[in-house]
Amino acid sequence: MTKGSVVVGTSDTRRNERLARAALARLMEPQDSVGLALVRALGAIDAVGVATGELSAGAALEQELSALLADARGPASWPGLPASLRRWAPRVPDLAPERDVETMKRLGGRIIIPGDALWPQQLSDLGLQEPLCLWWRGQEQDLPAVSQAVALVGSRDSTSYGGSVTGDLAYGLAQRGYTVVSGGAYGIDAHAHRGALSGGVASVPTIAVMAGGVDRFYPSGNEELLRAVANQGAVISEVPPGSAPTRYRFLQRNRIIAALASVTVVVEARWRSGALNTAHHAETMGRAVAAVPGSIHSANSAGCHRLLREGGAVCVTDVGEILELASPSGTAMPRDVDSPAAAHDGLSLEDLILLDALPLRSASSVEKLTVVAGLSADAVRAGLGRLGLLGLAVSERGAWKRTKKA
Amino acid sequence: MTKGSVVVGTSDTRRNERLARAALARLMEPQDSVGLALVRALGAIDAVGVATGELSAGAALEQELSALLADARGPASWPGLPASLRRWAPRVPDLAPERDVETMKRLGGRIIIPGDALWPQQLSDLGLQEPLCLWWRGQEQDLPAVSQAVALVGSRDSTSYGGSVTGDLAYGLAQRGYTVVSGGAYGIDAHAHRGALSGGVASVPTIAVMAGGVDRFYPSGNEELLRAVANQGAVISEVPPGSAPTRYRFLQRNRIIAALASVTVVVEARWRSGALNTAHHAETMGRAVAAVPGSIHSANSAGCHRLLREGGAVCVTDVGEILELASPSGTAMPRDVDSPAAAHDGLSLEDLILLDALPLRSASSVEKLTVVAGLSADAVRAGLGRLGLLGLAVSERGAWKRTKKA
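^ inputs. structure came back:
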């Protein structure tokens, strides 16, 4: 099959659209602005024609593209546009979209495109940042709504602290029916998936968003784990099978992690870390960003502290605090705070002074209390009555002392 | 000498004012609103007269006090005011302000009052919250301006993490000529003073603000330390010698710690902790509040994380970040960030894609790079030129590879 069969082909429009987007994903890097303008101007099918050189561009198209690009990237002239439209030529010989679609089927997966029932609405909400398609290994089932998903991201070289925190958070989120979203790397990513798989009650406990093709479970040390993620959750990517996970693709992949989740939590990150890029994407999308604090002596928490200090991230220490961000309306679980209210909370200043003046062992007379507390006898008597009612003071033959509760 | 000698006495007005305030500090708890209204209405000397019953109050005074109290605490009627004016009677027999002033001299200290050259301006800035006087053990020297002082506060039962962080911060602040302000307790307070004393180049390296009288160095385990603080810095309190450090006085003491410093840093604190009360005072005064993050598994950091999450505290991890808050105009030292900028920072997306495509070992032809990078041959050649200039790419007989720098 050649590229020609993509553009003009069967009467099945959806099938052609799918093959066209599979082809475009092979030709173009994620977020290729000229390529995306071409798709907006002509639709995916004719965009493949122009990108492969089958259809000629012409001055009218170039003018439209210039306008679209100015729209997307600010006013600028595009003198290099004709050359840009030939940029994809070197990759044309490798085009085989039907083979790529077959590969996904063989791996038990699929390719989904905007307009499919399975296409997540939150990716369409990205506007110009929407991926052309998603390559997907895993069960055929709806991905969670954005409100039901939380991204846990962080360093590859996580510490034992970061690992255990990530595992606990992922387990707790999955137990409450939330989906965890992360990358496929060692460290925080791997701990996030393991925790979610062990706690999972959600139909999709966890999603791994890959920077390279999903035909290969990379890195190889995570192969078994990512296989389990694909079995119970989903392993997805916007780049086609066989694509290497380049630095550029990692940065673009991060926007998809951020887009799928209502909160992006950075658990551990160095001062410079890809996780901060994910947090930045989330912030740009108006999504909540959270960071887990850690020791100031740990270089692996420096990025988290940087986000707390500069980046507008919220400090979170448990699942409850994360879920408050996921549903700010307060519909999430209430906070559980382990320290109970102190017995003297809410006392007036005078009663607090009086309580301070009460001895714990041998009881004091009202007269002595007036001296110690610096209150009038009337005030002492009234205050003792109130403290007695609260169980904070007790009288013994006309003298008063504090109770153990106080 | 009796209280009478305070009110009518020598012609030395400052001396009388000083003795009157010493007497009022003995009669009234800190922030006694009726007492403070009395001082505002009559001045300190006549206020002692009324408080001791030497001068009768009268309806006109009661009306004026009612107005002042309504002013300070919001509109309310004060039916109990005549009784309130007798509240201090039980403490009158213990009054001996001249003895208290003598005690301070014997201890190598003094009492200072508003209007004294030594009175810190930042306490007058407190308005109604200004203390009546300060009892002070230490050298006779100016206390630092608010911009030169940082409060370090936290739990009594600090962990080794909290202790070492506090010591490092206090040492670093003192080394840069800043004064550390804290309480006199075990834990964070003690570590703050020890660190400041060891690093001190400031004339007043550290100040301990006590909740009880400064005649006694309490708790006894800190006696040697507090003696060293008095020798090199200052130990101060608003309550007179012999006063016990009650819970109420601790809460009021905290406002003085907050008032003396431009930044209040909570290093370690439980979910409920007096240190949070100090932070609250600082916030109310419009001063900067900072918190040091720690392990989410440590109960001693829960209060810090609470402040970061709810209290508007800034996350700080070193002295530089604290000093940014002390002088927000940016006159403080620059941040030192240990990770250098990555060589690929600031590259265009196309050049980043090209860099990703360059092999590290055997060099690639331009033709091969066009395929791997998905860029036109012209774009690859131009990009290679730019990367070459930056020292990120190098050519070998017409083929290109990445340098180690990239």
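Chain B has three domains: 4-97, 121-326, 349-402. The first helix of chain B runs from residue 4 to 7.
thumbs up if we can close this ticket
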